[in-house]
TrEMBL record:
Subunit and interaction comment: Homotrimer.
InterPro entries: Hexapep, LpxD, Trimer_LpxA-like_sf, UDP_GlcNAc_AcTrfase_non-rep
NCBIfam families in alphabetical order: lipid_A_lpxD, PRK00892.1
Keyword Isomerase: no
Annotated family: Belongs to the transferase hexapeptide repeat family. LpxD subfamily.
Keywords of the record: Acyltransferase, Lipid A biosynthesis, Lipid biosynthesis, Lipid metabolism, Repeat, Transferase
Gene: lpxD
Pathway: Bacterial outer membrane biogenesis; LPS lipid A biosynthesis
GO biological processes: lipid A biosynthetic process
Key word Acyltransferase present: yes
Domain UDP-3-O-[3-hydroxymyristoyl] glucosamine N-acyltransferase non-repeat region: 22-89
UniProt protein name: UDP-3-O-acylglucosamine N-acyltransferase
HAMAP family on file: LpxD
Catalysed reactions, as listed in the record: a UDP-3-O-[(3R)-3-hydroxyacyl]-alpha-D-glucosamine + a (3R)-hydroxyacyl-[ACP] = a UDP-2-N,3-O-bis[(3R)-3-hydroxyacyl]-alpha-D-glucosamine + holo-[ACP] + H(+)
Length: 340
């Protein structure tokens, strides 16, 4: 798919310096630009590359004036970084602009869907599923019975959505994610054998949620596991049964949240964090990477470590921990002096 400088400038409300008919069909970093590519210059650190890049078109700030000869056509805009981001979003929309039902695929009895559905080949849509408009479901995806999927949501290839799940509008769920699998519920009998506790709840995902590849969100034992609007979950995260995650919270990869924990809104949780069950994480909490959280955290706190401590307390303690061998040596020396 090709775009001219004139088309791009029109989309970005920019001004062209160079050839308005210059065509591009790929995106590139400025230092890796080649003929037919589009790039941008926003960071002054990369200024030297504007004079050597082979990119056909470069988006720059309006204030930019070249001091040497350049070969690339310029599109001048108010903010090069924001404009390039806008262009990436547009490019992604065009790239994903698919519709129609590919075969083989299965739409079970009672399933309904809105306008502009894309259903890739080898998909299975269960009974009484309700799919909104402009939904894209990529190949090899499973959607169980009685699932609801809102408008403008994307399920990438290989997603598994178990029965009774509710997914809101504008959500993106990446390949390999599993939504609504059984929670980890077992109870030992008198002989120490673990018997399964039926998990009969569901998962509710509100609007504008992103869920990364190979992330698992378990269904509730009773009631619902709830991912509230605007939440962003990275790849390879485990969200256990009956967890609630508040609005606009962001969680990095390899984090695990145990059952029935409530996480507030606008939290930032780093990678490889472990959070025990049945606690409450307040609003606006920051949890540093690899922390182990074993108790509730009030609003606005920043914690680190395992078990997690207050961020400043952890850093103070870590200074002493690094010096621990010397501290032990000093103590031993003092003990010897006392003996004398």
């Amino acid at each position: 798919m090709k775009f001219t400088a004139e088309q791009i400038a029109g989309l970005l409300e920019g001004d062209i310096v160079g050839n308005p008919n210059a065509e591009v069909f790929r995106l590139a970093k400025i230092e890796e630009g080649t003929d037919g590519s589009l790039t941008f210059l926003a960071n002054p650190k990369y200024l030297p590359y504007i004079y050597s890049t082979q990119a056909t078109i470069t988006i720059v700030n309006r204030t930019f004036e070249p001091e040497n000869d350049i070969t690339t056509t310029l599109i001048k805009v108010d903010d090069a970084y924001q404009s390039f981001s806008k262009l990436l979003e547009y490019y992604n929309q065009v790239k994903l602009m698919k519709s129609g039902i590919e075969q083989p695929s299965v739409l079970s009895e009672g399933a309904t869907y809105g306008d502009n559905l894309y259903l890739g080949s080898f998909c299975y849509i269960g009974k009484n599923v309700k799919i909104g408009s402009n939904v894209k479901i990529y190949p090899n995806t499973f959607v169980g019975d009685n699932v609801v999927i809102g408008d403008d949501t994307i399920l990438f290839a290989g997603v598994r959505v178990y029965s009774e799940t509710v997914i809101g509008k504008g959500c993106t769920i990446h390949s390999g994610a599993i939504i609504g699998s059984d929670g980890f519920g077992f109870a030992p009998n008198d002989e120490g054998v673990y018997n399964k506790i039926p998990q009969i709840g569901n998962v509710i995902i509100e609007d504008n949620v992103d869920i990364g590849s190979c992330t698992t969100v378990d269904r509730a034992t009773l009631g619902s596991t709830v991912i509230k609007k605007g939440v962003k979950l990275d790849n390879q995260i485990q969200i256990a049964h009956n967890v609630t995650i508040g609005e606009n919270t962001v969680i990095a990869s390899q984090t695990g949240v145990a059952g029935s924990t409530k996480i507030g809104r606008n939290c930032i949780i780093g990678g490889q964090v472990g959070i025990v069950g049945h606690i409450t994480i307040g609003n606006g909490v920051r949890i540093q990477a690899q922390s182990g959280v074993g108790k509730s955290i009030p609003d606005g706190e920043t914690v680190q470590g395992s078990p997690a401590l207050g961020y400043s307390d952890f850093n103070k303690s870590y200074v002493h921990f690094r010096n621990f061998p010397k501290i032990v040596s000093d103590i031993e020396e003092l003990k010897q002096q006392n003996k004398q």
